[in-house]
Amino acid sequence: MYMADNTQKQVKLMIQDRTGHTDLALALEEAIERIVAERLDSGSPRWPMVNGKLFQFSAQSRGDAVALLQDTIRLRELLDSSDEPVVVLTDTLAGGCQ
Amino acid sequence: MNTITLPLLNRQIAFLNRLKETGLQFDIQLTSGYGAHGRNVVTEFRPDIKSAKTYADISAAFNAKLGEIPLASFQNCALTRRIAEHKSADNCELAKSAMGRVPESPVKFFADNALGTLAGTQTYVITKEPMEVREGDRTYRVLTCGSTTYYGQLVLCVDERHPIYNYIDKNHVLVLVDSENAKEPMMFVANQLSLDVNYLIAAASVYPPALKEVLQQEGCFLNYRDARIGLLRAERAIPPRFQEQYKLLRADVLKDFEENAQNVMINKLTRQEASHIDLNRIRITTTTASYETVSITADDLAAVVFQKLNPNEEWDIFTLINIYTDHIESYFNKLPLNATGVGFRTAESKKFTINGIEITVSVATTNTRRSINGVLINRDELSKVMRRAACFVDENHETNQRDFNNFVRDVGKMSLHVTDTLLQGLPVKVVYLAEDEAYGKDASAKHPKLKFRKRDGKFYFFVDAATEKEVKRFVSLIHRVEMLNRKYHKPYYYYGQQRTHEGGVETNGAIKPNDFAKALLPVLKEHIETLEDKDLQTLVTFVEKERSEAEKKSLKLLEYAVKVTKAERIEFKGKWGYKIKGQLRNYFVEEDGWRTYDADTGQYYCVVQGRGARGVGQDGLVTRLFALQNDSMIVNDVPTLVQR
Fold it and tell me: How far apart, in whole angstroms, are the C-alpha atoms of residue B395 and residue B397?
């Protein structure tokens, strides 16, 4: 498990992957960057479940700077307000097509 | 030990007594076997008729019973000789509800469960012109079912003097009743099997005289148009002591009808008696099926999909799309090549649309490949590529067409199968799981997976996390391994094996190669020149360890998800799974198949993994628990959850 700088608030990430899932404990800013990357940079975007609740991004891409800034502010506030924030990054679902 | 019920015994004895009165000579054999419906064992005192040589004799025997008689009961008579010469004389079949899909079928509905297995009552559909035989001054019409004299049944043999003679015609329905509540058997012909006619058959089977005033033409014909009025008369004519028996049977007929309501509607559409039907909230016409933002249009859509669809199972718009694209793939696979074998005999194409995306599948005389929208695609990937069009649901039609064409172009460059194998690995049965019980089954996503990667245009195989070796002929390797998967299955005896926690078996002791793994080695060595025998143990240990560790970690994640979402493990519709409270409704998700239902109404929701899903084990269930709790926020991605 990768341990980050422990002077900042720690966020626990659980990322679904081929190994069953990967646990990460990241500092707040690193966690936000990772969540944004998993949502916007990945070819197969994931859904971030912050303490069980889906966090909805309004930004559709990195180029959508204003929306992305607002999203990161909201995400930071949400994670900061929780004593032990846990974010599960899940695969997405679709309406029937395979 | 042979057993027989008293009513059945009484019926058989009455027949034998009537047969004796005809003057025919016969012995009596005690037989036991499956009845005409093939569903239950019937013990029978069967006549072995020795003196029936002519059609007049056969007709006399039939009139003594007014019911089916095994052809084997007649020894070397005119009829059995004729059937032996012509090989087949089948001209009628026991009625089945499924017959209703044939355009001119007289079967609009038949209560398979309630009437199909009724002792003493048989309902036959006359599927071909009856056999007509001239003998002396008489003409006989004969119906037989079953194509051999050993297994076949004589269903009817009457001459022109019998009032039913003129109604024995193709697409009519013959009902033979030998009720325990009446002294004499009876028969009649109907021109259609509607719901009311089903009720009348039920009434006849309980108390045959009830139909006395209903049947026309000397008590032998029932016009389905008069069935409603006739039913009122028949129900009044049933004596009070038989009313309870009739009501129970009528309720069974109605239950059959309600369970088959979808079948009845589908039959109406395929016979073009209805312009459209709405099933599972899908609007279906003969050429289109549409649900929310997903649709398919094809000239022969209804004719194709309703041949294969089982409406009693769970299905949705994607099931219809899959059936149609599979049909197209199968159609092009059957087309013959030309004499030189370098192309198809004739150039052909088929056009249809999914979500408004135009799809043209074609073959040419100049090569043996199939193409979609002008791009050559592997023959076994045609259907998979076509059905992906259903994933493009942008409101802008032009965007959908462009995205789909780009997708087809990419698959044309690198096979879909190869892409999936690189992304997800190639499942192999180096460990047998519980479901590996039969020959011919592919390995599933739950099996350990061989891992590959592509670098600088070359394919590499992972023996373990640190060792990779170059693969020659990657596609050939995939196909050979998949053939092995289908060939091998769990052993019937577990000598030298031990059970795994999933209910499968593995070689005793540590993880050792099973018979599949031993067969895999030569295939791998054929495609990976630097692979050695000793690598097999390393490989098997590596892939199995990866799989079992991933499964365990996935279960840990599930534990967390259940705790956070407060999902409750319950049994629903006979299956175990989790009940989860959403914002729009409560859901139940099966823990095995991950199928999703409304926990209150039982309505099925088609929810599948999104593109590029990477999870293993129960990760799909984890995703559903989290996502369904937030259902109102994911309806854009999962339109099947939209509040209606």
Answer: 6
User: What is the C-alpha separation between B587 and B106, in angstroms, rounded?
Assistant: 42
The ipTM assigned to this model is: 0.91
CA B628 to chain A, closest CA, distance in angstroms equals 10
Mean pLDDT, range B266-271, rounded to an integer? 77
Q: Are residues B437 and B526 in the same domain?
A: yes
Low-confidence stretches of chain A (pLDDT < 70) are 1-7, 43, 95-98
- Picking from A49, A50, A48, A11, the residue whose alpha carbon sits closest to that of residue A27 is A11
**Helix (H) / strand (E) containing B411:** helix B397-413
Same domain, yes or no: B393 and B465: no
Contacts A–B by Cβ distance under 8 A:
141
Host domain of residue B178: 6-189
Question: What's residue B509's pLDDT?
Answer: 45
Can you give the pLDDT at residue A1?
46
Tokens of B566: 């407060």
* A65: closest CA of chain B, how far (Å): 22
Contact between A95 and B628 under an 8 Å Cβ cutoff? The reply is no
Cross-chain Cβ contact A54/B633 below 8 Å = yes
Residue B289 has pLDDT above 60, yes or no: yes
Q: Which has the closest alpha carbon to B40: B137, B118, B110, B103?
A: B118
Q: Taking 60 as the threshold, does the pLDDT of residue B502 lie above it? A: no
Structure tokens at B4: 């027989």
Statement to judge: residues B76 and B54 lie in one domain = yes
In this prediction, residue B69 carries a pLDDT of 87
- Cβ <8 Å between A18 and B550: yes
